[in-house]
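Fill in residues.
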């Protein structure tokens, strides 16, 4: 199992002193979130702050396939966020991510998978191909293409 934790290494020293507690996870831009949402369209978990404190690693591992290390990170991250979401593909073990939400902003907490994880830069670079395929295989696009092809054939023979 491959796990990527996005918590900053010096997170404990960041929190020392002052009233404001900075969030020790990288903020997702709107563009980056669209890429993640396209590749991982299903929100399988939505955990609020109180539920995250009472999370049992065993329950999440057996129900969602979330590794113990990620469950611990979700519990740590819940101190900073209103809710923590887990996004995945239809297949449970296909590189899901944990995302923290605070005031409409999204932060990347962790990512894991059974095989080596695809780098985000590669996902972002292949986005136009994925969207093209998504729209090309949409039923409306197929119907329009067949209608155009039928019209072309009809105009040739008439």
């Amino acid at each position: 199992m491959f796990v990527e934790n996005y918590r900053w290494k010096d997170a404990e020293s960041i929190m020392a002193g002052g009233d404001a507690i900075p969030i020790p996870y990288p903020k997702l831009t709107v563009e980056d979130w669209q890429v993640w949402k396209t590749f991982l369209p299903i929100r399988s978990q939505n955990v609020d702050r109180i539920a995250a404190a009472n999370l049992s690693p065993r329950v999440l591992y057996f129900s969602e396939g979330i590794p113990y290390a990620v469950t611990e990170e979700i519990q740590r991250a819940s101190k900073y966020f209103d809710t923590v979401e887990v996004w995945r593909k239809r297949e449970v073990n296909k590189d899901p991510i944990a995302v923290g939400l605070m005031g409409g902003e999204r932060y990347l907490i962790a990512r894991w998978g059974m095989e080596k994880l695809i780098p985000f830069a590669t996902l972002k670079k292949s986005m136009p191909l994925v969207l093209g395929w998504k729209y090309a295989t949409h039923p409306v696009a197929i119907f329009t293409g067949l209608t155009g092809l039928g019209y072309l054939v009809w105009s040739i023979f008439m």
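Helices lie at 11-15, 30-39, 49-53, 57-64, 68-77, 120-125, 127-136, 139-157.
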